[in-house]
Amino acid sequence: MKAGYHRAADLDDVLRKAGELGAKTLVFDVEPLVAHWDNGQDALDRGVAEVVAKAAAVPGVAVVCFATNSLRRPTALPSDAGVRVVYLAGARKPLWTAPYADFPRPGAVIGDQVATDGLLARRIGYTFLHYWPPGFHLPWGPRLLHYGGRAVRPLVFGGKD
User: Which one-letter DSSP state was computed for residue 150?
Assistant: First the structure.
């Protein structure tokens, strides 16, 4: 799979594209695709379970990793999905790449921020699936990071899709 950039509007779109690319490893940013920033523990637990169940159905996927720069963690990780499930809290994206070194290739990083998720994808040689649904609104902190990512995107991934 050639490292690159693709936009995706929802989880089904992300997983369809990952399947087309033949990804064996999927690295998901937690906020906002799995659970929104201001949601509680139940939402995080439900989101992790839903993403693992759907991702495990994609042919060839062997690893589903959740990577967040926040410190929040799910109560438990699903273990019966037929895939290896990893959760990295305090992941220090895009700086810390060691946890991804033994994951099978090719892979994709799925997230909303070019400046963290996109740069991580580029650094580890994965495709970046940019989660950006129609009408998507970010809180102020992530919005500022998004503006920086918009400036960096053409340098990191070239032109448009």
Answer: H
Instruction: Give the separation between CA 49 and CA 66, rounded to whole angstroms.
Output: 11
Q: Residue 86 maps to which CATH number?
A: 3.40.50
Domain count, the chain: 1
What pairs with residue 110 in β-bridges? 28, 129
Which residue has 């580029």 as its token pair? 122
Instruction: Enter the pTM of the model.
Output: 0.86
Residue 3 to residue 121: CA distance in whole angstroms: 8
Structure tokens at 112: 């909303």
Structure tokens belonging to residue 14: 């992300």
Which band of pLDDT confidence, cut at 50, 70 and 90, is reported for residue 2? very low
Beta bridge partners of 8: 131
| CB neighbours of residue 55 within 10 Å | 23
| Residue 88 near residue 123, CB atoms below 8 Å | no
Q: Distance (Å, rounded) from C-alpha 72 to C-alpha 43?
A: 12
- C-alpha–C-alpha distance, residues 40 and 74, integer Å: 10
